[in-house]
Amino acid sequence: MEFVVYILYSEKFDKTYVGFTTSLIERFKSHNELATKGSTIKFRPWKVVYLEFYNSKTEALNREKWLKTGNGRIFIKNLKSNNFF
Fold it and tell me: Which stretches make up the GIY-YIG domain (predicted)?
């Protein structure tokens, strides 16, 4: 099974969201259309701007947690400032 760490971006609200999943398409659909509660519904529409793939859930979870730290947020900010998204 492959695990995907992803960053979503809401251009309308200039917000990012970090998560991980085994089914990116279904998860993305949930963030943009299906979910009726949660933090992502108020910042729609989202677009996927960054992906990383992992073979283990532990690795993916650790990377997701790191991206949510101060250093991870700096990493994301640098992606944005370098026009990555």
Answer: 1-77
